[in-house]
Amino acid sequence: MATFDAQQSSWTATDVMHFARRAGFGVTPEAAATLAAQPIGAAIDAWVNQSADMTAFNADLAKADVISTGVNQNIPADPAPHPFRLEGWRRQVGIPNAQGHFAWRMQFNPNPLQEKLALFYHQLFATGAEKVDNTAFTVKQIDLFRAMGTAKFGDLLLAVSQDPAMMIWLDTILDRVRPGSSDIPNENYAREVMELYSLGVDNGYNQQDITNLAKALSGWTYTPMDIHPDPNNTNVQRPNDGTFHVNMTYHASGTIQFLGSSFDVGGPSNYGDACIAAILTQRGTNCAAFLAKRLLTFFVDPNFSSAALSDLQALILTQNFDVKAILKAIFKSAYFFDASHRHNLYEGPVAWIVRMSRMLCPNLAAATVPTLPSFPAWRAVAPFFNNSGQNILDPAGPNGWAEHTGWINSNTSRYRGKLAASLALGEILTGTQLIFPSTVASWFPTAPASPQAVYDRLAALLQPATIPATVQATWLNGLWTSGFTWDNSTATQAKVRELAFLILCSPHAQLH
User: What is the distance between the alpha carbons of residues 492 and 489, in angstroms, rounded to a whole number?
Assistant: First the structure.
């Protein structure tokens, strides 16, 4: 029997929490119990189809940033709350806001797979804001991943190849070959689209394929800066919209050989699109294996077997690279829910702190008030993403970040500890602002009767891998040295927060 043939026929709240950690950013025990009462197939279909109502989420996004802007270039001082300031055109103005915007969406989007897939594809098609130097284009690319996260992989590969941020990042806009000339094309993107984004290193292509693909993509660019007259007849610049087009002055002509097929790159309807499509049609088996490795590593098991890889490769080919159908098949399989695949993946720092915030901070309904919403101040957290090992929107290179054990070392763990202290203990990360609003009372729907009950509830919220009973006992005996009383006193709240902090800092809580 193939790895993904056996289906999970039913599920428990524990199963739901495993699924939600991988296909989103976790759910509370109460939400897990609600989902567990639904048929597993229908519930997973709805999750992958992203069918939850977005109305309240979209409305609250307009007041999501709880930090005053101050005066920053052309943005006036403006007290919170207000929308994330994404209109900052240049990187120095807008990227911390864009990072905060991304994290806020991860925390509150009622269709969390949309954001999880955006994070997955941001890791796969890693594009750095420092070089792109245009916040609008950086955000536009993440929006592309949200819109096409469950589309066919080939369609997304073409769309991201024609995305302005990617064309700047890997120099497609510098790929210029005048028709009939001996100009040397810029091969940067032609190489990486196969090596990093679809096939893998030296997997089904050669140097001549790279050179010829670069010719096919020559002249690719986007709408330039427009000059628009204002009502006073004064010319003013407006940021371009990044619409893809081909500059025929720099687009090669003639016939090329690519992956064993001929293409007239100067034809009236062939400006390189067909060559991108040929990566899947001519090297589908190679591309399916590449995508299978990435999906298994991110969603299931970093130490996958050759049989699992082969079977997922076959599934991808059978589903014609339809990511929605592929994900449904993975998430419904008994293989995905196997005990060996739970808490076997180290979680990236951004997903980790977002998930923990979902558990300890108010949900969207509770956080939204007319004047000052109780949202985490994600814009202030953004600088700590880099220190923790994942500077979202600005990776150092096109191969993204190291996953799984690559997330954990002595330095990144130190900064995870700082984030944990800010979240659980309410410590100030920077300046004077409380970053993560929360109340101990909201963590406990019913009063715990013992220190162990306090631990059990926090473990149900934070969902670490099983922490040894001896370690639990040491923590509880150290915190409650002379009997147990549950009240709203400062001393009780401090002990509970310290216990949450200990759990968050444990090696077990870095796994998901």
Answer: 5
DSSP assignments along 455-495, one per residue? HHHHHHHH-PSPPPHHHHHHHHHHH-SS-----S-HHHHHH
- Beta bridge partners, 72, equal 75
Q: Collapsing DSSP states into helix, strand and coil, what is residue 65?
A: strand
Among candidate residues 160, 69, 92, the one with its CA nearest the CA of residue 122: 160
d(CA 343, CA 465): 6
Residue with tokens 């990227």: 95
Q: Nearest-CA neighbor of 253 among 216, 284, 285? A: 216
Q: For residue 129, which of 90, 179, 88, 86 has the smallest C-alpha distance?
A: 90
Burial 308-320 (b: 16+ CB within 10 A, else e): bbebbbbbbbebe
Among 389, 424, 384, 410, which Cα is nearest to 504's? 424
The rounded average pLDDT for each run of 10 residues, N- to C-terminus, in the chain (512 residues) is: 92 98 98 98 98 94 73 59 63 76 96 98 95 88 96 98 96 94 95 98 96 96 58 47 87 94 82 94 98 98 96 98 98 98 97 98 87 84 91 93 92 93 89 84 96 98 98 97 92 97 98 97
Q: 157-184 burial string, b = 16+ CB within 10 Å, else e?
A: bbbbbbbbbbbbbbebbebbbebeeeee
Strand, helix or coil at 251? coil
CA 225 to chain centre: 30
What are residue 28's phi and psi, to 5 degrees? Answer: -70, 160
Q: Which of 315, 6, 301, 261 is nearest to 153 (CA)?
A: 315
Q: Tell me the whole-structure pTM to 2 decimals.
A: 0.94
Residue 237: enclosing H or E segment and its boundaries? strand 235-238
Query: What tokens appear for 268 in the block?
Result: 């009236």
Three-state DSSP class for residue 226:
strand
Q: How far is Cα 60 from Cα 363, in angstroms, rounded to an integer?
A: 12
Euclidean distance between CA atoms 293 and 201, whole angstroms: 13
Tell me if 176 sits within 8 A of 250, measured CB to CB.
Answer: yes
Residue 244 CB: number of other CB atoms within 10 A? 16
Angle at 451 between CA 447 and CA 453, to 5 degrees: 55
**Cβ proximity of 458 and 503 under 8 Å:** yes
* Coil, strand or helix at 425: helix
Q: What residues have CB less than 8 Å from 42, skipping those under 6 apart?
A: none
- Domain ranges across the chain: 153-282
What does the DSSP assignment read for 320-373? TTBHHHHHHHHHHBHHHH-GGGSS-SBPPHHHHHHHHHHHHS--HHHH--SSS-
Q: Of all helices (H) and strands (E), which one includes residue 496?
A: helix 490-505
Nearest to 388 by CA among 146, 99, 169: 99
Q: Cα(356)–Cα(372) distance, rounded to whole angstroms?
A: 22
Residue with tokens 């149900």: 460
Provide the token pair at 332. Answer: 């419904």
